[in-house]
Amino acid sequence: MKKIITLLLCVFCLEFFLTGCGNNGAAKESTITVAVAASLKNCMDEKLIPMFKEKYPGIKVQATYDSSGKLQSQIEQGASIDVFMSAAMKQMDELNKKDLIDKDSVVKLLENKIVLIVPVNNEKGISTFQDILKADKIAVGDPASVPAGQYAREVLTNLKVWEDVSKKASLGTNVTEVLNWVAEGSVDAGIVYSTDTASNKKVKITAEAPEGTVSKVIYPAGVIKASKNKDSSKKLLEFLQSDEAKKVFESYGFTPSK
């Protein structure tokens, strides 16, 4: 009888070990949800998330993309998000003020540039930010929620043309929408990040924001304080700061933040 009890205990312990640890003693699987600025979609979907999954097969990554302002609002409303990758410090700082971000996890990940784009035919002959008023229709991100729109307003305000531009402006819900409007020829010009134009052959850059007209464009990333998957989330942040990830970001036109 004692032998039978001992055998059953051994079987139970073995089953418990395998259930808790998974195959080959691997860590229990987890799923993390990442809220990502729309301008990072291509490099995340095409390269970085698959690379991360290969390195950490036990961690599944679900990514949602939109303007940083909308993602900030979702986090404030209690959306189940583990990591936030913003296109500006403003949204990250506001979440930090509300004690919704693990402030010790926040890193300044990348830098970008603000550029003026036009359809490839450029019928209006727009070549600089100063002559953007040649356009009949101008696309910018909505400054209320889109960092690219906030940067655009900053540039144009410093150039003393924002008031006139705003009368002609179509406000995009995110930077991808602005890019698509220009590519389709629905507008004569738009203001986006330089990285947005890399994969679109229907638009061209005519100018970068003049020096001194715009704040430094920084992309921060951090772990949401309410995350139930902090260990996995921190692994993702560590990976995004690795040399292999930096090479991918650079291939898409981003500059690793210094």
UniProtKB/TrEMBL annotation:
Source species, domain of life: Bacteria
Keywords: Metal-binding, Signal
Leader sequence residues: 1-22
A Pfam cross-reference name: SBP_bac_11
InterPro entries linked: ModA (IPR005950), ModA/WtpA (IPR050682), YvgL-like_PBP2 (IPR041879)
Keyword Repeat: no
Family: Belongs to the bacterial solute-binding protein ModA family.
Xref: NCBIfam families: modA
Protein name as catalogued: Molybdate ABC transporter substrate-binding protein
Organism: Clostridium rhizosphaerae
Gene field: modA
